Each structure stands twice: as C-alpha cells, then as structure tokens.
DNA sequence: CGTTGAGTTGACCATCGTCAACAGGAGTGG
DNA sequence: CCACTCCTGTTGACGATGGTCAACTCAACG
C-alpha cells in the first residue's frame, strides 16, 4: 500500500491570523454557541470571568490550528466553521479522528503535548484560551470541570462508536453512518435539515472511515444511483433519511 | 458476512458474586492498585472517606459486570483480573472497545446508561461504587475529579489510537500493535516482562482489531514462524521486542 | 487556454473474510 | 481408563470486498 504518497498534506503552519481588532476579551455573554458548549454551565458572572481569558482567533481554510506532538499551549472553542482532527503515522498514513463544528472544544485532554493535528476546513473562528489560565479557571469552577468531564466522556463514546464503524462495517455502511452522524451533529444549528454540509474533501472522509477516496466516491455514487441521496455542492441531501438511519443503526 | 452467527455470546448475567465476608467498607489504604489509579490523588483521610462508599465484589470468568444500554448504577475499579469491554450492533456484530486490567475504572463516562458491556475474562475482583454517591463524592473532591478527567482524556487518546490501528493498518500490524500495547500496560505490574499474558480469546482479539479469528491466528502463527514471538500458554513471549515496537510505531 | 486539484469511473488484483476440516485440551459419563 | 462432546485454535482453499493504478471530467484560477 502506497500510503506515504497519497497526499502531500500541504498545510499552512504560519501564525494563526488573529482577526483585526478582536484581540482581547471576547463577548462570551452573547456567544452563539454558548448554549451548546460547556460554557452553559456557567452563570453570567462566571462567563465574564472566563471571557477575560479568551482571545478571538480566526483561521483560513487549510490553516493549522494545532500540531500533533507539539507542546499543547492552548485550548480552543470553535465558534464558527469546521475543523478536521487527525493523527499521522511516521510513514505518512493518516487517520482523521474527528471533525469539530461550532461548540466543540479542541485540546480538552489536558495532556502536555497535542494528541492530534487540527486544521481549518473552512474559515474558522475560535475562542482561544491559554492552557495554564484555563486550567487554573477549572480549579475554581468545579461545575465547569464537571461539564468538560461529561464532554470528554461523550467524545470517548463517539470514539468508541467510530471504532465499531471502522472495525465492523462495510464500506457503504461506513459512509451512511458518517452522513447520518454528521446530520445529527448539524441538527442543533439547522433544525435537522436533510441537507448535510460536507466541508471536508472525499479524502478526509476516507481517512476518517478507514477507506480510500475511490471507495468513498463509489459508495456515494451508488447511494445517489439508488436515489437514497443527492449530491449537492459541498454536501449531500438525504432523500430517504429513515432508510439510511436503519442502515446506520446496524 | 455472517456476523450474527459467529458467536453465541453466552454470558452469565446472574447477580455479581460478592465474595464472602468482604461486604462493606474496603481497605483502600492498602489497596494494591492505589498508586496506579486516580485514588492516588487522595490523601489517607480522603481515601478512607471513599472506602466507606466502596464494596468489594468479585466475578467469575465470563460473568457480566455491566450491560450496554442498561441503567448505569455503579462505577467499578478493577483490582484484580482482566475484563473485556465491548459494544454490540443490533445484528450481533461485536466490537471490543478495550480490555480493563487492575487500576482501570469502568463506567467513568457518567452517562445514565452504560455505553458498553463488560464481562470478566478471568476471576475479577473490583471495588464497586454506587453511582450517585460516587458522583457526590466527586463534587467534594475536585482534585479527584481532575484525576478522573485526565484518566478519561487518556482513554480518549487510546481510543483514537485504536481508530488509527483499525483504520490504517494491515492485519499483521494490528496484531503487533495489540501485543506491544498490552505489554506496555502490563509493565507497571510485571516490570516490563517480554511475556505478555493474553487472558482473552482469539475471538476477543479479533473483535478488538476489526479482524476475524482466522486472520488473527494466521498473523500470530506467522510471527511465531519468523521467530518474532513464541506462543506460550495463555500468552506470548516477545523475542524481538525492539523490532515489534518499530512495526507498531508505523 | 493551459494548469491544477477534486472527484468519478473502470479494470485488475491483493488482502482478508468465508467455509471447511482438523488438532488438542477440558470436562463428562460410562 | 477410554469414548465422547465441546470449545478454542490452527490451517488450507477459495472468493469477495475494497485497494491500486490509470484515465477521464469538471471547475477554479492564472
């Protein structure tokens, strides 16, 4: 298998582009993703305390947000856009371990080195915290820590489900699981629309599902031929959501 | 693929066998796994408080310790033996999501329903906590919560590594990763011996690695033929640990 | 209008799954 | 003690799923 060559992995590792004036202190009170993030556990006063630690930062598509094995110095809360998270093997093989959308935290594991690479798929804005001050804030806010704890537990659950998907399912089932799962995650923002935005490339999907780009493409084409989905620009529309849910359930 | 038939999955779901006299209040102070578990974050006084909540329970091989989707009413700290953790698909396909050894907690995710099944591979003893009182204890011990948080973060990392193993590696590499990873985990108990105990069946290994039992068997036979390992009763001995580590690293 | 990169499709093939037979050990009962 | 079953594990033959390689379309962009 020629993994090492399959993608140049050109990623912009330049300094994160902090957008213009939004430098210090973020308006957490009116944050769009507050109800969907652990910040919901904080009252207005506490959220203000946290907002002092936050810096708004934004990233262009393909820009690196964190790099595997580098010193972990920040925690990020995505407020807009989509991010891919992946791990690399020394020989260049890549496994995408997840995609982050608004409300998701990156770097929650609190290890001293980043456990994955993260880079922006679209234009991304994020709330950036210094790791130490964030950690210190945690120690003063057990309720918040508790919320983060639950969030990591949830991520662990997702990771285990992903293990099931990769380990015990056929190519077509994996693609269906992916689409259905992504739709569920977007639901809180678009009200459960049957149109699933796919800001990532086929290669990203393939690396997430443990497949090749060709197999993903074939599976999507087959579903489209069977009129279960329609491919639209930057996404797909599910024509038979119920049937797809059944397949995904196993 | 005929998954549904591949294993009857006969598991003893009877009442956990609480061993004889060890009923209420456990001797946490002299617990063998204390240094390897989050309890290490507690001082003697705090550990005594926790010990009041604990009940020693033990399980026979193949006995169920928790069942997926059932109400989660307890948290377990394994003190002796080995446990397999797995998820089931409705059609009977199974994905083993991990193996627990002494020092590992089960049911840490704090969801109201168990996210996986757990059953004993060997005779197992465990410290059992009522979920509510454990949760209440957490609220009084932020340092302990913090330790658990780190532990779940570590598990998340392992799960993501497992995704890489299942998604991007060949059958033989997966088996090598499994052996090397398991050796690392046993190291704190046996000083890094090159003999890796395998209390689980080939089927369990296969379901962990997203392979079939035959493929696992062939991979092990091949490694043995190449004199990289020797198969011993209930385990393997690594003859070329360095070479195997290289393969596992990728 | 040529270039580049994403995506699709086809032909071929290798890895791993399937099916089957068999070996060896544990437990059971005569 | 042996015969028998049951279970785990091993090995072989074969085939299907999905990977590999290649050609092609199409849109974006200079």
How far apart are the first and last residues' alpha carbons of chain A, in Å? 30 Å
Q: What string gives the helices and strands of chain A in order?
A: HEEEEEEEEHHHEHHEEH
The chain pair with the largest interface is: A-B, 46 and 46 residues
Oligomer: homodimer
Q: Which CATH architecture of the largest domain in chain A is right?
A: Sandwich
CATH fourth-tier homologous superfamily of the largest domain in chain A: Jelly Rolls
Tell me about the largest β-sheet of chain A: 4 strands, antiparallel
- Structural class by secondary-structure content of chain A: alpha+beta
Radius of gyration of chain A: 19 Å
Give the low-confidence spans of chain A.
1-9, 17-23
**Might you state the CATH topology name of the largest domain in chain A?**
Jelly Rolls
The dominant shape of chain A is: globular
The largest beta-sheet of chain A arranges its strands as 1-8-3-6
Which descriptors apply to this entry?
2 domains; homodimer; 250 residues; four-stranded antiparallel beta sheet; alpha+beta; Arc Repressor Mutant, subunit A; DNA-binding; Jelly Rolls
Written account of the structure:
2 copies of one chain form a homodimer. Chain A is built from 7 helices and 11 strands. Helices cover 39% and strands 21% of the residues of chain A. Chain A has 2 domains: 128 residues, Sandwich (Jelly Rolls), CATH 2.60.120; 81 residues, Winged helix-like DNA-binding domain superfamily/Winged helix DNA-binding domain (Arc Repressor Mutant, subunit A, Orthogonal Bundle). The N terminus of chain A is likely disordered. In chain A, the strands form 3 sheets. The first copy, chain A, has a 4-stranded antiparallel beta sheet. In chain A, helix 5 crosses helix 6. With 250 residues, chain A is of the alpha+beta class. The longest helix of chain A has 27 residues. Chain A binds a DNA duplex (30 and 30 nucleotides) through helix 6.
């Amino acid at each position: 298998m020629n993994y090492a060559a399959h993608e140049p992995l050109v990623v912009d590792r330049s300094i994160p582009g902090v957008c213009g004036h939004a430098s210090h202190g973020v308006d957490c009170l009116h944050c769009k993703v507050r109800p969907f993030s652990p910040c919901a556990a904080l009252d207005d006063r506490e959220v203000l305390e946290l907002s002092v630690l936050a810096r708004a930062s934004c990233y262009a598509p393909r820009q690196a947000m964190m790099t595997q094995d580098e010193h972990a110095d920040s925690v990020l809360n995505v407020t807009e856009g989509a991010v891919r998270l992946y791990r690399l093997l020394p020989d260049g093989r890549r496994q995408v371990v997840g995609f982050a959308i608004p409300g998701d935290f990156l770097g929650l594991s609190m290890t001293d080195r980043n456990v994955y690479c993260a880079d922006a798929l679209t234009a991304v804005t994020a709330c950036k915290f210094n790791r130490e001050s964030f950690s210190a804030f945690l120690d003063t806010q057990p309720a918040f820590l508790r919320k983060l704890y639950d969030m990591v537990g949830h991520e662990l659950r997702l990771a285990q489900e992903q293990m099931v998907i990769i380990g015990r399912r056929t190519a077509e089932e994996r693609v269906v699981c992916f689409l259905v799962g992504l739709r569920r995650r977007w639901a809180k923002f678009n009200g459960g629309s049957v149109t699933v935005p796919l800001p990532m490339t086929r290669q990203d999907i393939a690396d997430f599902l443990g497949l090749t780009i060709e197999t993903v493409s074939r599976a999507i084409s087959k579903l489209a031929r069977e009129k279960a989905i329609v491919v639209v620009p930057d996404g797909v529309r599910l024509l038979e959501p119920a049937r797809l849910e059944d397949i995904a359930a196993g």
